[in-house]
Every structure is written in structure tokens, then in C-alpha cells.
Amino acid sequence: MSFIRTTLCAAFAATLLASPLFSQTSTTPPSTTAKPKSTTSSTAAKSSTAAKPSYDRTLLKPALLKDTAPDTFQVKFETTRGDFTVTVTRSWAPLAADRFYNLVKHHYFDGARFFRVVPGFVVQFGINGNPPVNAAWEKATIKDEPVTQKNKRGTLTFAKTSLPNSRTVQIFINLKDNPSLDSQGFAPFGIVDDKGMNVVEMMYDQYGDSAGLDQQAMEKGGEQYIAGKWPKLDAIRTAYLIGAAAEAAAKKPATTTAKPAPKPQPKPVHPATPQH
């Protein structure tokens, strides 16, 4: 699912348009040189966490992950390069905020690689380490929405293809102000804290766009494939809600599953029949 768009030179751009990077699975945001593309994350050794075989089985059913995000919430990313925190403001892009909230809540990004790192442009992530999960989200798109914020340094934006309503799970972090992305429909929904950008800017970038162009294989092969071919990519050890949003999310299941007290039933004439 490569959701990166790039504004590269004409020749390279033509190549990308025909590649997975611009397919449903690849969404890349534009830049003076290229739009954000999907790539894997960190070194195989670094991603021992990334290679975990277990995952929340709810991730196999995107239609079930429809919770509305809080007006604002924070997410802590623990990565192979260090930690950083993201603050999301739902009013910036409600659909994007809700999608991100649900993905984080079910630990979709745990173990994911920062598969595309282009210095002075963007850092992109969102390919899950488990092929079945990638397959489940390939067509789980969300509609486009107005761009209310600028793609400034540190902002998070969902990648997309040239087709309308093509955002799914890939996200990029702007490494600098990228005004060209604003007019192309890339709507920021959150921002990395200032100190956290020091960590983001250190992500392994020596593969450049090479790894990003390999998105389809990454999605199909998962972490096993990525660790073998792109072992130095940094990874997200885990990403989770913190603060009030985490507390609210922890309490919600109890509230949701609570059942009303049963109404008094008339005295049965015959012994009750077991119910299934």
C-alpha cells in the first residue's frame, strides 16, 4: 500500500506513476523532488520488535475500527532511534484523525519500518510487518477532506495516490515546510513535538527512494522480507495513546460491554430451557 506522491523530475515522475508507489497501496506526498513514499523501517536487528508474529486480530477487519477520536490526543512513538510524541487535533482533518486514532489504539504501527526517508523532504511509514494485515487494509480507504493546515515541518499527513479518496494507512512526516503538498490535497492532522523532530531527522536515510519503490514487495512479504532486503531501515518499536486519551480508551470497553439489568420475568410454568 504505497501512499506516497512525489514531484520528481519529469522522467522519474513518469516512472513512479506507473509504479506501486502511486497505486492503491502506495501513497506518496509531493516535494520539490518527490512526494512522500512508503518504505520499510529499521534494521533487522533493531526491529526484533518489528518482527513479532502476533498482532491484534481486529486489524484484519478494518470496518470494525470506527471509533471517533477525541478533539485532541497524543501518541507516543518508541523507535529504534529514540522516542517522540505526536499531538493530533481532530478539527484539522477529522477523517484522518479518526483513522490514525483507531490504528494506534489497535497497535497497527508496532514494528512498522520508516520505509521511505528522503532528507530535507519526508519520512514515511505505515506498512505493517504482517502481510495479512496489509492485505486487509489495502482497500480500506477514507474520503479526501479539506486541507486546513499547511504541510509544515513536523506535521503528519496521510499519503495518497493521484486517485480521489485513496488514503488508507501510510503516513509521512514533513522534514521541512512543503507548501507544494497543500495544493495537492495532503491534509495534515497532527504534529511532532519540537524535540521529537531531532529523533525523526535521524532515521536511516541511505536507501533514499530505492526502498520506497519496493513497497508492494514489502506489503506482501512483511517484516521477513524487509529485514532481508532493507535491514538498516529504522522501526517503530511501539506507538500508543498517552494522557487523557489513553485513560478514556482504557475505560471505554467496560462502558461499551456493560449490559442493562434484566427485566423481571414472569414465573415460568415449566423449567427454563437453556439458551445459547
Which sequence of SSEs, written as H and E, runs from N to C?
HEEHEEHEEEHHHEH
Order of strands side by side in the largest beta sheet? 3-4-6-5-7-2-1-8
Let me know the number of strands: 8
The amount of beta strand, in percent, is 15-25%
Parts with pLDDT < 50 across at least 5 consecutive residues: 1-33, 37-52, 254-276
3D structure, described in words:
The chain has helices at residues 10-17, 94-105, 131-137, 196-200, 209-212, 215-229, 244-257; strands spanning 72-79, 82-89, 116-118, 122-125, 155-158, 171-174, 188-192, 236-242. It is α+β, with helices and mostly antiparallel strands. The protein has a single domain (10-251), classed as Cyclophilin-like (Cyclophilin, Beta Barrel). Strands 3-4-6-5-7-2-1-8 form an eight-stranded antiparallel sheet. It is globular.
Summarize this structure briefly:
With 276 residues, this protein is an alpha+beta fold. It has helices at residues 10-17, 94-105, 131-137, 196-200, 209-212, 215-229, 244-257; strands spanning 72-79, 82-89, 116-118, 122-125, 155-158, 171-174, 188-192, 236-242. It has one domain (10-251): Cyclophilin (Beta Barrel).
Key structural traits:
single chain, about 280 residues, alpha+beta, Cyclophilin, eight-stranded antiparallel β-sheet, 7 helices, globular, disordered N terminus
Which helices and strands appear, and what pairs or packs with what?
Elements: H1 10-17, E1 72-79, E2 82-89, H2 94-105, E3 116-118, E4 122-125, H3 131-137, E5 155-158, E6 171-174, E7 188-192, H4 196-200, H5 209-212, H6 215-229, E8 236-242, H7 244-257
Antiparallel strand pairs: 1-2, 1-8, 2-7, 3-4, 4-6, 5-6, 5-7
Helix pairs in contact: 3-6
